[in-house]
Amino acid sequence: MTAQLLTTFSSEINSAKLPKHVAVIMDGNGRWAKQRGLPRIEGHRRGANTLKEMLRYCKDLGIETLTAYAFSTENWGRPTGEVNFLMGLFERLLQKELREMEEEDVCINFIGDLSPLPASLQDEMRRSIERTKNNQGVFFNVAINYGSRHEMIKACQAIAEKVQQGELASNEIDESTISQHLYTSSSPDPDLLIRTSGEMRLSNFLLWQLAYSEIYVTDTLWPDFDSEQFDLAIESFQQRDRRFGKVKK
Ligand code: IPE
Ligand code: IPE
Ligand code: MG
To answer: Which ligand is nearest to the CA of 199?
Structure first.
């Protein structure tokens, strides 16, 4: 990270105290579109652009990992047209952005149950994982068909199977056993969770991993979330006193 680059960021940000891992619930695309008399899918289109900008900004700032909630296990309950649009959008984005991700040293991964996704989307996902797997500039996790409860059920099943096979004793199961069986096993827990559009809930996102994350909620709708908004979230994070249940000496 050069000093030259840092001058473009808010002077309020302390580059020595950055969150290592930022998770984001990208919410408010539909309301953004509605406010403008546009169909909801226009909000999703604009939201995709916001994510791209945010990823670049994280990398420039020196944040190691960004995890973005793109589609929840509950989002299948939306109108078919919207679900199909989103699946197509994810696929087109991966096709369009892969070269740039390679050039920008982005390592992409996906969390969630990918098996029910369209086969052509799964192909693009595998291709982008493979082509970026050695990159180290920024780790980018996209949560698609992700639900924390589903993730925990899968983890319990995998652990129970190991106990049944005699590979693990039940009294050996500890926090790290659980963490290692989640989709996020290769990332540290998020330091900061950002949710846009003012909703103060987790909506089944990273329930285990967010145990001690700092939460920042902004009323800004996701398509309007920009680098200045992101700076505000980082500044807020840097003012927090993270006690982890302890008492300051
Ligand atoms: C978030 O925006 C994107 C997805 C859940 C895919 P929404 O589509 O939830 O937007 P609102 O909450 O209806 O405004
Ligand atoms: C959470 O947003 C899921 C994503 C951002 C992908 P939702 O819009 O689905 O959540 P609720 O329905 O407001 O809880
Ligand atoms: Mg929403």
So the answer is: 2
Residues with Cβ within 6 A of ligand 1? 26-31, 71, 75, 86, 197
Q: What are the structural domains of the chain?
A: 19-147+189-236 (3.40.1180.10)
Q: Which residue has the tokens 């892969």?
A: 98
How do the pLDDT tens digits run along the chain, 249 residues long?
Answer: 444 444 456 778 999 999 999 999 999 999 999 999 999 999 999 999 999 999 999 999 999 999 999 999 999 999 999 999 999 999 999 999 999 999 999 999 999 999 999 999 999 999 999 999 999 999 999 999 999 999 999 999 999 999 999 999 999 999 999 999 999 999 999 999 999 999 999 999 999 999 999 999 999 999 999 999 999 999 999 999 999 999 987
Reply yes or no on whether 27 is catalytic: yes
Q: DSSP labels for 41-52?
A: HHHHHHHHHHHH
Residue 146: count other Cβ atoms within 10 Å of its Cβ. Answer: 26
CB of residue 199 inside a 6 A radius of ligand 2:
yes
Which atom of ligand 1 lies nearest, measured to the CA of 72? 5
